[in-house]
Amino acid sequence: MSNIHPNFIAGDWRNGATSLENRNPSDIDDLIGIYACASEEDVRSACLEAANAQSTWYDAGPQVRSDVLNRVATGIEQRAPEIARMLAREEGKILSEATAETQRAAHVFRFFAGEALRVHGEFIASVRSGVDIEVAREPLGAVGLITPWNFPIAIPAWKVAPALAYGNSVVLKPAELTPGTAHLLARIIADAGVPAGVFNLVMGPGASVGAALVADPNIQAISFTGSVPTGRAISQHSLNGMKKVQLEMGGKNPMVILEDADLSVAVAATLNGSFFSTGQRCTASSRLIVQASIHDAFVEELTRQMLALKVGPALAAESQVGPVVSQAQLDSNLAYVALAAAEGCDVVGGERLDGSGRGYFQRPALFLGATSSMRVCQEEIFGPCASVIRVEDFDEALWVANDTPFGLSAGICTQNLRYAREFRRRVQSGMVMVNLPTAGVDYHVPFGGRKNSSFGPREQGRAAAEFYTSSKTSYLFSG
Any bridge partners for residue 408, and if so which? Predict the structure, then answer.
């Protein structure tokens, strides 16, 4: 059992009753490691230990929490090459993207090390003589964090860091496809001196480990990033336990290209937003809404650059797009490529590459001649596929942009200030990009969307305090 990477519970590294293999999607013969799966009893133990440790962690004061988070940031920076290589091997991001994500995680911990010292309250004058009113923010208690495979260190960082900064304790359940990066993060957090029980790592399938975490009575709140069906189920179960809940559940993000756009800027933003990170981003540009007068020129240049992208192993220096994360995801992507053709699109690219079966490689795809009502324009694919929808003018473009059950990120390429302003004001999304890719956000500002994309308070930046703390209003009569 010594070669199995264990869970981390109450300051101890513990093997589980079962384990799972972690394999490289660039080369499925590459066994990265074997990782312990937590049992339901392991989850109960982690949640109980987290609940018992939380008050001591909070009472230690903000300077202690700040110092620990700064040490975590330093630990990530010191081990960045190792983390980035692990991330690239198990998730499939090319190494440059994996390195940038690792750096982002360090920045997140450094930011919240500062926020631990800046927990704000209010002193409000009472309408009654002799009465003082104070509004303070306090931690929730033990929180459960369930993170996805597509950002295996950035998303755990932007959940764990604020949770700890505001005095909560944590039970982290990473995606079963990417346990290695989370395991490295857990070791860094442990080495940074987090007291036993304050941070816990439980690995394994969502159906068992995640479900046990959501159901545990010692957990006061759940923050989840993943699919809409799972998010809805978590919301319902959390309501039964009266838990606070935060959900990030995906997107079908529009990128509008108006006729006055700088073509080179529009193509670069779209190429990045649609196909980098193999399209496996909830903020990816999956609907390209192009004004008729620029449509043909835009499609011609985007197609040329898309087909020139080098698809290959994540660690290969020449690769620009890595593999799809798993066989199941690749099968789903290819099914959507077939669906696009069946719905009447002209499909460019999208085929599986590397017939040897040693990696999950797919050529990026454009679905030309798409209409907004098609399933490929309404359902999240989560792969390197983008639909192109032709529109006549700005008003039609805006209508199509909003014609979706999602509302995470939206972009527009234009040199017209009036259209940029109107789009920012009227598009139904939580984030708006002008002449920039829809994917790629800063770590110190709010992240989240509308409709089926998000539920609950925003993540990241100072907005994170809204979820990870509860307000308490105190009245004092001095006589």
Answer: none
- Give the span between the Cα atoms of 99 and 129, in whole angstroms: 58
What is the per-residue pLDDT for 356? Answer: 55
Report yes or no on 447 lying in a domain.
Answer: no
Around Cβ 228, how many Cβ atoms within 10 Å?
Answer: 16
State the Cα–Cα distance between residues 107 and 104, nearest whole angstrom: 5
Say if 444 falls within a structural domain. Answer: no
**Would you state the pLDDT for residue 355?**
58
In which residue are the tokens 């989240």 written? 448
What's 224's domain CATH number?
3.40.605.10
Q: What is the pLDDT of residue 145?
A: 98
Q: Which residues of 22-54 are buried (b: 16+ CB within 10 A; e: fewer)?
A: bbbbbbeebebbebbbbbbebbbbbbbbbbebb
- What is the structure's pLDDT at 461? 95
* pLDDT tens figures, 332-389: 999 999 999 999 999 999 999 975 568 999 999 999 999 999 999 999 999 999 999 9
Radius of gyration of the chain (CA): 23
100 lies in the same domain as 186: yes
Tokens of 2: 């010594």
CATH of the domain at 408: 3.40.309.10
Side by side, the strands of the sheet bearing 253-257 are 346-349, 365-370, 385-391, 285-291, 253-257, 409-413, 431-434
For residue 165, the number of C-alpha atoms closer than 13 Å in the C-beta half-sphere is: 33
Token pair of 175, please?
């995606």
Q: Whole-structure pTM over 0.85, yes or no?
A: yes
Low-confidence stretches of the chain (pLDDT < 50) are 1
User: What range does the domain containing 173 cover?
Assistant: 4-249+453-477
Considering the domain architecture, whether residues 55 and 139 belong to the same structural domain is answered as yes
Name, in order, each residue with C-beta under 8 angstroms of 202's C-beta and a sequence gap of 6 or more.
Answer: 7, 9, 38, 42, 43, 46, 171, 172, 173, 209, 213
The pLDDT score that the predictor gives to residue 1 is 40
Q: How far apart are CA 464 and CA 444, in angstroms?
A: 10
279 and 216 share a domain?
no
Q: How many domains does the chain have?
A: 2
Question: What percent of the chain clears pLDDT 70, i.e. is strictly above it?
Answer: 99
How far apart are alpha carbons 274 and 284 in whole angstroms?
5
Helices and strands (DSSP H and E) totals, the chain = 14, 25
pLDDT at res. 421: 98
Sequence-separated (6 or more) residues with CB below 8 Å from residue 66? 113, 114, 116, 117, 165
Catalytic positions are 248, 282
DSSP class of residue 51? H
